[in-house]
Amino acid sequence: MERDRNPYDFLRNSLDSLAARHERPEPFLEQVIADLENQIQCGKKALQQALSSEQAAELRWNQAQAASLEWKKRAGAASSTGQELLAKDALRQKQDADNDTGVFFSLLQICREQSARLREQVAYQQKLLQWVLARQKKARQKNPINQAEGAPSFSSGNGSAPLQGRREEEPLLRQTAEMGK
Question: Predicted confidence band at 140 (pLDDT cuts at 50, 70, 90)?
Fold first, then answer.
C-alpha cells in the first residue's frame, strides 16, 4: 500500500482531511501543534537518555576490552615465569572478560540502534510540525479573523473595504459604503 511506504504523506493527508472537515480548523491545528511539540520534547528527553545509555555501554565495553588485555598479559607473564596455576587462573579471567566484551558490545549496538531510531523519530516529528505550522498559516490566511478579539479584520485604506475572506458579503458592504459617501 502507498501509505505504508510513506507514513509522512499519509499523516499529512489525514490531517488535511480532518482540518477540511472543520469550519474553523485553527483550534484543531493548534491542538495538533501542541501535541506535536509535546511529543518532540518527550522524544528529545528519550534521545538524551538513550545517548547516555550508549555512552555507558561504550565505557563498559572499553573497560571489558582493557580487562581482557590485562588478563592476557598476566597469563603470559605467569606462564613465562613457570607459575602454571596463576597462568590458568589468568586465562579463565581473560575468558570471562572476553565474554563481558561480547555482551557489552551487543548492548552498545542496541543502544546505537535505539539512538538512531529516536533521532529519526524526532526529525520526523519536527518535519511534521513545520508542515502543520504552514497549514495553520494557510488556514489563517483563508479566514483572517482577529484571534484575540474574534472580530472581523478590516483592511486599511479608504474605509470601504469589505470583510476579508467573506466574498458573499462584499456586494452588500460596497453598497453600504457607497451610500455613506
Answer: confident
Place of cell 547516555: 52
Phi-psi label, residue 163: left if phi above 0, alpha if psi -120 to 50, beta otherwise? beta
Query: What whole-number distance in Å separates Cα of residue 9 and Cα of residue 5?
Result: 9
Torsions phi, psi of 150, nearest 5?
75, 15
pLDDT tens profile 9-66: 777 777 777 767 766 777 778 888 899 999 999 999 999 999 999 999 999 999 999 9
Residue 20 to residues 17, 23, 149: CA-CA distances in angstroms? 5, 7, 24
43: nearest Cα among 99, 97, 117, 95: 117
Find cell 459617501 and name the residue: 181
Cell numbers of 57, please? Answer: 555501554
C-alpha cell of residue 169:
458579503
- 8 Å CB contact between 147 and 26: yes
Q: 71: burial class by Cβ within 10 Å (0-12, 13-18, 19+)?
A: buried
Torsion sign, CA atoms 78, 82, 88, 89:
negative
